[in-house]
Amino acid sequence: MRRGTVCSSRQCPPDAGYRHVDADRPWSACHDARVLRPFVAYLRVYEPLRALGDPPAKQLVEAVSAGGLSRIGIGEREQWMWLKSQTAAPARLLPAQLRDGRPSSSLVTDVLVLDPADVPAGHSAEGPFACPLELRARSAAALSTFLADAEPALRIAILEAGGATADRARAQTKAAMSDLTAAAAHTLTTTWTVPLPWFSLVDPDERKLVLGSGPADPVREASWRTPMSAALRRASEAGELIETTFGDSGPGRVLSQTRQWLESFHPDSVVELDYGGLVQLFADSLLDADSTAEEVHDILDALRTGNVEELAELFSQLREFWGDLAAKEHSN
């Protein structure tokens, strides 16, 4: 539940459902099963800690040693940081940012940590592996795109509402992008769906599925993890095949851009495809039977062999499965 809201029956405190990162502020669960995580899926890169600084910042080392952020609360954390920036006086242009425009301490301490037990088999590099949240920089990238692409009237209205000028916004986005320890942010996000080309990066057998007690269970998870070397190899092979067949637009462009993004990170990294809050939108039986990763790889095989009938059947299955989510997005 977002801070400042209450559950439908008003039985829980305003902070229920939000897992605080401050050690002196305990997390409490809301009993209301209708309190949902954001419908966001993620493609993440976990780099070896040594790749995040030479040496890594002391605060970062301590945050990783403490276990990092809670995976089940990452969406709520991002929502809360954004809400906090907008309700501050004066409002902050970017989340995770102090009044004077400098980054807050969360720049270093907000990090997801990959348990060594969850590192894909065959990965020889030593951990720990960490994925910085980088919320200020990711928001700056989105703001930069908005400033470049938005209609002038809309751009002016948004900037005026935030008490900022275009020059100030550009200066702050530039400063925020310098926060990154690599050439790109460690996380890509998408709402309501997962780009099908992302599934070509993983081995279908690498799926981790935790159904829990149902869609509302916070531990519910569907994810894949794979070594960076394998993800890059698959992206290259799939990209060449798709570009040869369909050209460099659509899925081919997505794969090309994704491959370039992956190449920004340490070669000993781990790549994770995570359904995130989308797991709440599927019944147990549907999530358990989800074979999207297998079907995407079958599509690539069918392209190699020129099996047109199999291609048509596979695309039909994928449209049916993900079309239900598209309908839910439309209704919202």
SSE arrangement:
Layout: E1 40-48, H1 58-65, H2 74-87, H3 106-109, E2 111-114, E3 129-132, H4 135-149, H5 152-161, H6 166-177, E4 187-191, E5 207-210, E6 221-227, H7 228-246, H8 251-262, E7 270-274, H9 284-289, H10 292-305, H11 308-331
Antiparallel strand pairs: 1-3, 1-4, 1-7, 2-3, 5-6, 6-7
Helix pairs in contact: 4-6, 7-8, 10-11
Describe this structure in words.
Helices cover 42% and strands 11% of the residues. The protein has 332 residues and is α+β, with helices and mostly antiparallel strands. The protein has a domain of 207 residues. Strands 1, 2, 3, 4, 5, 6 and 7 form a 7-stranded antiparallel beta sheet that branches. The two termini are 18 Å apart. The relative contact order is 0.14.
Which class best fits the helix and strand makeup? alpha+beta
Q: Can you give the mean pLDDT?
A: 84
Uncertain residue ranges: 1-33
Rounded Rg: 21 Å
Helices, by number, come to 11
DSSP helix fraction: 40-55%
Order of helices and strands: EHHHEEHHHEEEHHEHHH
The tally of strands reads 7
Sheet with the most strands, sense and barrel status: 7 strands, antiparallel
Distance between the termini: 18 Å
Our estimate of the beta-strand percent is 5-15%
Protein name: DUF8083 domain-containing protein
InterPro entries: DUF8083
Organism: Amycolatopsis echigonensis
Pfam families: DUF8083 (PF26312)
